[in-house]
Write a structure and sequence with these properties.
Blueprint (H helix, E strand, L loop, with lengths): L2 E7 L2 E7 L5 E4 L3 E2 L4 E8 L4 E7 L14 E3 L14 E3 L15 H12 L6 H8 L2 E2 L10 E2 L12 H14 L6 E3 L5 H9 L4 E6 L6 E7 L6 E6 L1 E10 L4 E6 L3 E6 H10 L4 E4 L1
Parallel strand pairs: 7-11, 9-10
Antiparallel strand pairs: 1-2, 2-3, 2-4, 5-6, 8-15, 11-18, 12-15, 12-18, 13-14, 15-16, 16-17
Helix pairs in contact: 1-2
Length: 279
């Protein structure tokens, strides 16, 4: 009985008809494969006919990139911590908003957090490239930084704007980190993040002075009233001490600073419990 031996080499398909003991009975000229699909080729002898079709299919699968997300957190995350330590402190290098960004406490606080996480980004570059700004008062503080952070007359922004700035930067860095908007969390819930070495960008007021919530302007196109917290200020929460009743922050105006916990919580609550972190 005759057998057909198929030998495949790169780009060349060679067919030889062999006898049952493996000796070559007759040589068949090689068929050169110039494309991925070769039409059916028929070889006949007095003994048998072989019909061979060779087809190669290449499938390329492109997976979507892993894009950093903004995750709104509504439940307390404890990170497996059964009982909070009485006190905890994260060492973070303070960055001052002045003189370059006299109104840029929010983006400077984010810059401190990013540098703590190992990113090398300057506060001015972060502001110029990633902070959405509005100069003509046609948006509100949840949508953009109103005014110019380089100008002392600039207003500021609320947590969604900083979360978006962080997301855009992390995406450009191809980072695996996500952004967590913790707005609505109680202050003592944020202590779990601190105890897990996760500093938190947090909204309060300058030196914890009283704030005044007032109608700053009305957007002409749709009549929306835009409200602002006078004396609003943003910092990076880095520690707490329940025994002494204090919190530690990196304040863009003062550097590392300790505030009374009860007073800090009072102003934090008044500023809508706004907070953002990254991990």
């Amino acid at each position: 009985m005759n057998k057909l031996k198929l030998s495949v080499f790169p780009s060349v398909l060679v067919l030889s008809l062999l006898s049952s003991c493996g000796n070559r009975m007759e040589d068949v000229p090689p068929v050169v494969m110039a494309q991925q699909t070769v039409p059916a080729v028929t070889f006949q002898t007095a003994v048998t006919t072989a019909v061979i079709t060779t087809t190669e299919t290449v499938t390329t699968v492109t997976e979507p990139p892993d894009v950093p997300q903004i995750i709104n957190v509504s439940n307390t995350e404890t990170f497996g911590i059964d009982e909070l330590p009485e006190e905890y402190y994260i060492e973070v290098t303070p960055i001052y908003q002045e003189p370059e960004l006299p109104a840029g406490c929010e983006i400077t606080s984010l810059d401190m957090l990013l540098n703590y996480l190992g990113f090398d980004i300057d506060k001015v570059d972060l502001s110029d490239k990633y902070l959405k700004k509005n100069y003509d008062y046609t948006e509100n503080f949840y949508e953009a930084f109103i005014g110019n952070p380089k100008d002392g007359t600039g207003f500021g922004c609320y947590s969604p704007v900083i979360a978006e700035s962080a997301q855009k930067y992390l995406q450009d860095m191809d980072s695996d980190f996500d952004v967590y908007d913790l707005t609505g969390s109680e202050l003592d819930d944020l202590f779990y993040y601190i105890a897990d070495d996760k500093p938190v960008v947090i909204w309060a007021s300058m030196s914890l002075v009283d704030v005044r919530y007032y109608n700053a302007w009305t957007i002409e196109d749709d009549g929306e009233e835009v409200w602002w917290y006078e004396n609003e200020h943003c910092m990076l929460l880095t520690g707490y001490d329940t025994y002494n009743g204090t919190v530690t922050v990196c304040d863009p105006l003062k550097g590392e600073y300790t505030y009374d916990m009860c007073r800090f919580e009072e102003i934090y609550d008044e500023l809508e419990k706004q907070a953002v972190t990254i991990y």
